[in-house]
Design brief:
hydrolase, Four Helix Bundle (Hemerythrin (Met), subunit A), Polymerase_NTP_transf_dom, alpha+beta, globular, 41 helices, 58% helix, 8-stranded antiparallel beta sheet, 4 domains, cca-adding enzyme, domain 2
């Protein structure tokens, strides 16, 4: 890597002059002669100051030239020189041996990431001290002197001291040590000793073991992806260990070094591992990821590898991204990041295919669910086509020009792979990517191409095939509106994936709904079996397109409906079905909003929703789409409570649409819900069970899922038998990462506000709330709060403190406003989001109540502040519907005046809006 060192040396020599620093060390040795500890401390202090100066220079140059790889080279060069200076000081001034014996030899070697000659600002330093034989007193003293100085400088050092024989022996049995030695780089000391290690390692460890190493490294990669999150499109990716991150590039290079015995990345091109274009991609990906990683370390001052929301905008600014209409600077930066991550995945596939051809790893199939290694000829024709062959269970091209002579093959290859459960040969995918110009207006209008696309969309493994179409660029070229949202992230905490990945995942969940058998999707699966057969493709295309217009200035639901009206006729949909697709896209958020933020026992809510959906068939389709959409947002977003809300909304609305008597139908469903509870809960005698059932209003039985009803029954009985005025049950929802507090207390006009204030005082942020009152005047409220501790025991104690505070407030022992104010003053930094506050005061959503809908930036204490403000406005809160969508809180309150009437005076409504907007705006200004 001499060219790296030379270039780096030129750029840092002005500030980091090795000769000058060595002379300063020599002067310190003279000054502190005979005082080893003092000399060592003085050297560490000198070198630490020089390192700080060098890092400051490196950061300044990085901000100027935005070249992360060069920055990593500069930092590595400086670290190399520091270790050489320390070795020189130790062997000349501390432990000088005028006539060294054969055992008094040592090679200091960089290993791991440091061995690659690239180093992030806060990276660990991995060193190997190589000895000719066993450890000697001299070798131990020299190694300790170097290590103690590095530690005194505040550096994180991983180290090992081994002889050549021991290194070879351990490398044979330990894959981690084998990989570390694979990446060794000589720093200083005895060069022949290092050369001996390299020669013996190649001959005694590497030769004949390529398959073992490749298999181990790819398995390690899979496990790392599993821990970091399988998708490369997570919106807070890990730059180092995430899918498509730097570690994937490192794994590629490890395998290439091991199998093809290359020493530098340039040799990947020389040995034919990559062609010229692929090698440029390799370098470009590495440069970009190193830029992100170095900036991330400099920004945070620690070895931070996760590109969190807190850092994304600042990194975007550092890298020079600017905002465009419809896309923020940070969203443009993250889109570029995900495109790079995709290219890293493509490079991995290319190398793996080369290894498979050379029998260094097993061959794949399309779907892991259907994976079976069945006997087959190595190469044979694909059924139904002479243009494609099966090559080791992968679809490949029969001739290089199959796309040119028939551009429909650009779509057909994906359909044939899907029908025959074939994986995609990287050579074929490479040719597809380089033939994208064939996906032109003529191909988009081709009836056969559009027919094949709809078959892909509506057949098994559509998610897998669509993802491959997306990664090659075919999907974005064939449906140009889709191309605009490829790798687009939304800068919010609600969506876990990029827009394109979310849409493709939704197709996967739609197919899971259609297969049935999952407890997650009981209602949606039942409705899927009942929709008209001709509406099945309508549902699939609506699911694929529902967020197609994200990133535009116009509302994405309305703009998406326009896209559907232009696209669907081309795909073979009739005018009626095209309008149905457009309607589903335009209303795809409606059902979720109504279910989570409206009173489903209010007749007006149901009538308004029925007016939107218009027919039972459209409501079925919308219910299924809504289920797939919420489930596709990310882990933990979909849960039993939301499923129950959608179910309740559906069955409350169905009689209105069919012209039936809704109250009669509701009574029947109420009897069914209570009957399910009786059948599942057999612990109590019938008389006690009847009395308990009569304590809850119909809304409770219709809206709460069965397992929660059973927990509530046990909790209420135990609390009342113990004579508690107030009781709290603590539960943990692992899927959502929240702690649930179920509170049983005497109902009180300010109870919700008190609970919210107690949570705020404990620093707990409320993300969900289910609020019910019993017929005998008890409140049964379930509050979901974000976790603070990893251990359930610690969370349980935190919940107990919240309960004690609620009880103290109810008994007048504690003044809540003062406690909340103190907590607010000590609150940490605000999340880096801005949510435009909105307040709606509406009398059309209910005949009995005025509905106040509040939307703004979520924060601890927000619900307390809102309920307190509403109470100070002399309003009674009849019910509250609390929901959080990432950083956005959407809280809806059904209120009346003190006489129980709606708020009808325009001036009074304006005062309510003004007061609540002022409350929200103060938080926006702080952000």
């Amino acid at each position: 890597m001499d060219h790296i060192v030379t270039e780096a040396r030129r750029e840092v020599d002005e500030r980091f002059d090795t000769a000058r620093i060595t002379a300063a060390v020599d002067a310190l040795a003279t000054e502190h002669a005979g005082r080893e500890d003092v000399f060592r401390s003085a050297v560490a202090k000198l070198l630490k100051a020089e390192l700080i100066e060098a890092r400051s220079t490196a950061q300044a140059v990085l901000l100027r030239d935005r070249h992360g790889r060069r920055c990593a080279e500069r930092l590595c060069f400086v670290q190399d020189e520091i270790i050489r200076i320390l070795f020189d000081a130790a062997t000349r001034h501390l432990y000088h041996s005028p006539i060294p014996s054969g055992a008094e030899r040592m090679a200091v070697v960089a290993t791991g990431g440091y061995g690659r000659g690239l180093m992030a600002p806060e990276s660990d330093i991995d060193l190997l001290f190589i000895l000719p034989y066993k450890q000697t007193a001299w070798g131990e003293q020299v190694a300790e002197a170097i290590l103690y100085c590095l530690w005194d400088m505040g550096l994180k050092v991983g180290h090992a001291t081994r002889s050549v024989d021991e290194s070879i022996r351990q490398a044979r049995g330990d894959m981690t040590i084998r990989t570390a030695i694979l990446e060794t780089r000589f720093l200083t000391g005895d060069q022949p000793l290092y050369d001996e290690l390299v020669t013996r390692f190649d001959k005694e460890v590497v030769q004949g073991n390529a398959t073992e190493f490749v298999t181990a490294k790819l398995a390690e990669r899979e496990e790392r992806h599993r821990r970091a999150g399988q998708s490369r499109y997570l919106v807070e990716p890990n730059v180092k260990d995430g899918k498509g991150g730097l570690r994937d590039l490192h794994t590629l290079f490890w395998i290439a070094k091991y199998v093809y015995r290359v020493r530098d990345t340039d040799e990947l091109l020389e040995r034919g591992v990559f062609d010229a274009q692929e090698y440029r991609t390799f370098r470009r990906c590495a440069d970009f990821l190193w830029s992100v990683r170095c900036n991330l370390h400099f920004l945070t001052g620690r070895a931070e590898e996760r590109l969190s929301f807190d850092t994304q905008r600042e990194i975007a600014i550092r890298l020079g991204y600017t905002s465009h209409p419809g896309m923020q600077d940070v969203e443009r930066f993250m889109k570029h990041y995900f495109l790079i991550a995709k290219e890293v995945g493509d490079l991995t596939a290319i190398l793996c295919a080369k290894l498979e051809n050379e029998q260094a790893k097993p061959v794949p199939v399309l779907s892991r669910m259907m994976a079976r290694f069945r006997p087959s000829a190595v190469r044979r024709r694909v059924p139904e086509s002479d243009d494609f062959i099966i090559d080791h269970n992968r679809i490949n091209l029969a001739a290089p020009d199959v796309f040119k002579h028939d551009p429909v093959n650009m779509i057909r290859i994906f359909r044939l792979a899907q029908k025959n459960n074939l994986a995609f040969h990287p050579d074929a995918m490479r040719t597809v990517t380089r033939s994208l110009k064939l996906v032109n207006t003529e191909l988009r209008a081709d009836p056969e191409a559009n027919r094949l696309f709809m078959e892909i969309l509506t057949s098994n493994d559509a998610e897998i095939v669509l993802r491959r179409m997306n990664e090659t660029g075919v999907l974005g070229h064939f449906i140009r509106a889709f191309g605009k949202i490829v790798s687009m992230m939304q800068f919010n905490m609600y969506h876990h994936y990029t827009v394109d990945e979310h849409l493709i995942r939704c197709i996967g969940f739609l197919q899971e709904i259609e297969r049935g058998g999952s407890d997650e999707f009981i209602v949606a699966s039942d409705l899927m079996r009942k929709i008209r057969p001709e509406h099945r493709p309508v549902l699939y295309i609506a699911t694929l397109l529902h967020d197609i217009a994200k990133g535009r200035l116009e509302d994405h639901s309305i703009a998406g409906a326009k896209v559907a009206r232009r696209l669907c006729p081309r795909l073979g949909f009739s005018p009626a079905d095209t309008e149905l697709v457009a309607w589903l896209i335009e209303e795809h958020l409606t059902m979720s909003t109504v279910a989570q933020s409206r009173d489903l026992t209010d007749r007006k809510t149901i009538e308004n929703f029925a007016a939107v959906v218009q027919s039972v068939e459209q409501m079925k389709l919308l219910t299924i789409l809504t289920t797939a959409d919420i489930r596709g947002v990310g882990p933990g977003v979909w849960n039993g409570w939301k499923a129950q809300l959608l179910r309740t909304l559906y069955y409350e609305t169905e009689p209105v649409l069919t012209g039936g008597f809704s109250e009669v139908d509701r009574a029947r469903r109420l009897a069914i819900a209570q009957g399910e509870f009786r059948s599942a809960f057999t612990e109590w005698p019938e008389q006690e069970l009847n009395a308990y059932i009569s304590r809850h209003y119909p809304a409770y039985w219709l809206k709460v899922e069965l397992p929660r009803k059973i927990r509530h029954a046990r909790f209420m009985r135990a609390s009342e038998q113990a004579g508690h005025k107030l009781a709290i049950n603590v539960g943990f929802d692992e899927g959502r990462g929240v702690t649930e507090l179920t509170i049983l207390a005497m109902d009180h006009p300010w109870l919700l506000s008190i609970i919210a204030g107690a949570c705020a005082s404990a620093g707990a942020n409320i993300v969900d709330a289910q609020i019910y009152t019993t017929t005998d005047g008890r409140a049964l409220d379930t509050i979901a709060i974000t976790r603070e501790y990893d251990r359930d025991e610690d969370e349980g104690r935190r919940a107990t403190r919240i309960g004690d505070m609620i009880e103290d407030v109810l008994e007048g022992k504690l003044r809540l406003p003062e406690v909340v104010a103190r907590r607010a003053a000590s609150r940490g930094k605000v999340r880096p989001f801005v949510v435009e506050p909105e307040v709606t005061v509406n009398n059309q959503w209910s005949d009995r109540f005025t509905v106040i809908e509040v939307s703004g930036l979520d924060r601890p204490g927000l619900l307390y502040d809102l309920t307190t403000a509403i109470s100070k406005l002399n309003l009674n809160i009849a019910s509250a519907h609390v929901a959080t969508f990432g950083e956005r809180a959407r809280d809806v309150f059904y209120v009346t005046d003190l006489l129980g009437a709606q708020i009808s005076a325009p001036t009074r409504q304006a005062a309510i809006r003004s007061a609540l907007l002022h409350l929200l705006a103060s938080e926006k200004v702080a952000a």
